[in-house]
Structures are given as structure tokens and as C-alpha cells.
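Ticket #175: bound-state structure for guanosine-5'-monophosphate.
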Amino acid sequence: MEYRILKKISEETISKKVEEIAQNISSDYKDKEPVLIGILNGCFIFMADLIRKISIPLELDFVRLASYGSNSASSGRIRLTKDVELLIRGKPVIIVEDIVDTGLTLSYLIKHIEKKAPESIKVCTLINKVERRYKEVVIDYQGFDLKEGFLVGYGLDYGENYRYLPYILSLKIED
Ligand code: 5GP
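RESOLUTION: The complex was predicted; output attached.
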């Protein structure tokens, strides 16, 4: 694979941002016990760091989504391959996503979760690619706003590689 590195987000920068989000969640949900629902696989490192910086009790679950017809979520044909297992009726839910790009994945999941009648649904994403938005979604907590490049590292993959990198690279893929 040929690529150029456009940008690097260091471990330290990520850690400060995650701390900031965690503090906001901790104060917004002070007397509640939110259920954080992570979208696998990309969110796993972000989620692990985030919950250890949140200072209030919470519950945790994961969902997994697959897109079919194409290997990109942008095809718009999404299905759920692992559902929420906790009971979330009447509870405050925070969806934790790695990247919101077109917004298709998130809007599909929000509709699905709404059917389970939680008290509220908020969205937390590490990266917001706002310029590529196709479906409007409200983001309540966000880490970085990025415009260009394909992001890898800190849980994010390119063909299942690079998830292990402790930092994020924004790549221009040239092959
Ligand atoms: P959306 O449905 O918002 O277009 O797609 C969101 C999903 O696409 C993300 O959860 C992520 O899995 C994937 N995605 C979008 N942009 C990138 C990127 O730059 N790098 C990686 N690794 N995945 C991406």
C-alpha cells in the first residue's frame, strides 16, 4: 500500500481530549447512571480509555453493525450483527462511536435504539468528519473534527491493520 501521512494525533493529545469528554459526561450525568453503548470494533480503545476517566457509575454494552453490498458503510445498507444485551428501557444512553462520517451508521443505530425506549440518547464520537455528512445527526460529545484523510490507529483499522498504534494517523492512500 502506498500512502502519505497527512497528520499525526499524538497519544498525549488524544489522552487530554478523552479526559475532557470524560469530565463533561461525568458532570452531565452526575446523578444518573448512563449506559454507554459502543459500536464495535473501532471504538474499543476509545471506550476503554473513556470509561476509566469517567468518575460516575455507568453500565457498558456494545453493538456491532455490518454494511453489505459493499465493504463501506457509505453504501447505506446496514444491518445489526450484535444487538444491545442490557435492558435500556427508561435509562439514559450514550452511544460511543469512533468516527462519524456520512452519519448513516449512527442514524440507523439511533432508530434501532429508540425502539427500546431509553430515557434519552446522546452521541459521543472520537472523530467527527462533519464535511462528509450525508445524514444529519446530532453529536453531543466529540473529540476531533477532521476534514481529510483516512484515519488509522488507536483502534481504527485499514484492512484490519494498524489498530494497535497508540496514536492516530491521517493517511492519504495512494494505491
Ligand atoms: P458512516 O456510516 O458515518 O459513514 O461510517 C462510520 C464508520 O465508517 C466508522 O464507524 C468507521 O468504522 C468507518 N470509517 C469512516 N471513516 C473512517 C476512517 O477514516 N478510518 C477508518 N478506519 N474507518 C472509517
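RESOLUTION NOTES: The pocket of guanosine-5'-monophosphate is lined by residues 42, 73-74, 97-106, 150-152, 156-157 (CB under 6 Å).
TICKET STATUS: resolved
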